Amino acid sequence: MKKLLLLAFCCYLSASVMAQSGLQMLTVKGVAIDSLTKQPVSYVTVALEDAGTKTPVKSNLTKDDGSFELKATGGKAYTLALVFVGYTTKQIIIPATGTDVNLGKILLRPSTKQLNDVAIVAAKPLMKQEVDRISYDVAADPESKSLTALDMMRKVPLLTVDANDNIQLKGSGNYKILVSGKESALFAKNPSDVLRSMPATNIVKIEVITTPPAKYDAEGLKGIINIITIKNADQGYNVNLNTRYNNVWGPGLNINPTFKEGKFGFSGYMGFGKQNKATNPFDNTQTFIADQSVLTQNGVNSFTGNYKYFEGEFSYEIDTLNLLTASIDYNDGVNNQETDGLTKNVLNNVIRQQYYSMSPNNSDYQGIDAAFNYQLGFKRNKDQLLTISYQYNNSPNTVNSANYFSQLISYPFPDYRQYNNAGNRTNTVQVDYAEPFKSVTLEAGVKGIFRNNFSAFNEDTLDTKTNQYLLNGAQTDDFNYHQDVYSVYNSYQIKLDKWTVKAGLRFEETTVNGDFTTINTPISTSYSNLIPSAYLQRQFKTSSISFGFTQRIQRPTIYQLNPFVDASNPLFVSTGNPNLKPELNNVFELNYSHFSTGSINAGLSYSFSNNSIQNVTNLKTGVVDSKPDTVTYTTYQNLGSNRTLGLNLNINYPITKKLQFVINGQISKVWLQGEFDGSMYRNSGYFSDLFSNLGYKFDSGYRIGVNVGYFSGQVNLQGKSSYFIFNQYVFSKDLLKKKASISLVANNPWSKYWNGNSTTSTNQFYQVNNFDNTYRTFAVRLSYKFGKLNSDIKKNQHGINNDDTKGGGKSNNGNQ
Predict the structure, then answer these.
(1) 231 falls in which pLDDT band (50, 70, 90)?
(2) Which of 48, 345, 411, 739 has its Cα between 20 and 30 A from that of 93?
(3) What is the value of pTM for the model shown?
(4) CA distance 249 to 335
């Protein structure tokens, strides 16, 4: 059978070669020359595009002497583009003459224009360092047709995806995710879940803004991840269908429709899927220092789920100066999890306490964003803009859990059920003004965020005498936390021939009012922050150096504030802290970028904060049914300092025309210090991550890729987590003249589970958590695109970006 398949494959290749050999071929030659120095320019990206279909055909780099040669099918017209950092893009029409074309010397004019003005996707470099951000061009990555958006995150400088699919920016979860420059309900709760289900073809590029300018809210200690999605439209329509099946993460479908008729345009995407059931073993060991007793837990976690999401953006161009836009995001999902396991407390080989628990947990999360923008242009300058915006956000998350016990030895708790509905509702208004002068760009604006964080929770306990569940008043309450942020900003950007300077100030006034329904313990406070930001970039012929400084604020979110006590694991409970205060972080960055044959991005950063918000654990002893009982209690506190020194490196290098190599990594040293529960804790250590990609593209439309990654684990105030190694193998084939593609993906095929662990060390106990996460997955993905659109729908250039609260969120384990 294998011999027959191999023979069929060889026949197919032979037929393809014979079919192509009969075609008339066109050769296009030329030499790229600097218009001022008259010297050859090497490593210029040269790309041929079909003039009729606008489809990229061939691309290459000029040699050391500036020369190039491209071959394509004859008998049709092409557009030739020459693209290089520091030069104006040159476009030349190649008519359908049927003869070879020698363009001779092609003069390139030096320019400070940014590469994102170029319309030919095949001619774009993957990486780009701007004055205050690094961007990764997902649309220019050949693997975007095969991988999910979460897979693509591994390739972006400064970003990491750990063993639990949690996204980290510079090793931290303190960031904010924006979609096309605005907050999105899609990422309010579970960003990894959404990105795992979303094909990378939905995304144009991913920006990492580690020193955000003054126009952005000051929240998010490590910065902002801005995911820019596709919004292509002209007169007509375009639809992209993507479907996949994964043996662990189940089936999924994504649709990306776009159309434009006259002055009206629409662009959006929607998707849904269902997660297959997966089961992961775990075991925990906790050794108590006081009496040397040992608490053990052994069991399994099983989970399933389903999800659906939608994002749509509408545009109506009243005239050339007045534009109306609106958008709506919707996200809905259900995660079902059950934890079954045996818990024992043993002293001198004698069982002091024991129980077996069955703990089902159902989480139903939703999110909706609705926004409206009016943009006014001015006749004397098309880039002079006034924008008025409004946005509404609502993102509730409902959790129902239960605990059923058996095999009891000296265990006083009866069965119980818990309920919690938590989230936030936000209204935001904003006015932005931008005006460019000859070499200076002015930006200014005002903004008001009116946010209501809420948590309604209760617990029902089984009365063993009546076999009825009764309300536990001590674990029942309704918590409301109103947080209003008023801000004004002003920034200036000066762009000279070789230098770019950007500086600004943002003033924020925050008022907080919180209360509980059942007890009279109001929370009321206010504080002001003046946030500076400054950036300096020096451009060279093929490289740039930039320096930046800014301050960032982390205001606590409802998930850190929430007083609900999660006792789904009854001897290991967790809760939030309504009395948390904001944390201020100072960030310094130095970055270097080089573009020639390939690209190199390297950066050095240092950040420090006091009053750091830390996740901490201690023991608490109480009395249940007249019997003492001890639980491990985890919460959040403002503690001490957090200092981090980091180095990052990204290299993208074409070994040959068809073989591409990418390496993306970082290493950081962290110092943590804080006093908690009467003890001073200090911890320090290194954390690092490394991702590499090797891809080969065949002429016949086949492509293979190998992705390998390493994540060292986290350093926390009271412990650390273990390392993780990731490997992925991708095979893809373009079909139907590149309108369709099929991909086969194997994630970590060498082992069914990944065995990880984490440790916690206090003056009361030492704990080791061991867990097996689903590791090996296989997926097949299909993509099909039809319709024809070429230009962008009209879109407002300013709008609401509520990046003022901590991003990240929970995600399920594994890789899709």
Answers:
(1) low
(2) 739
(3) 0.71
(4) 12
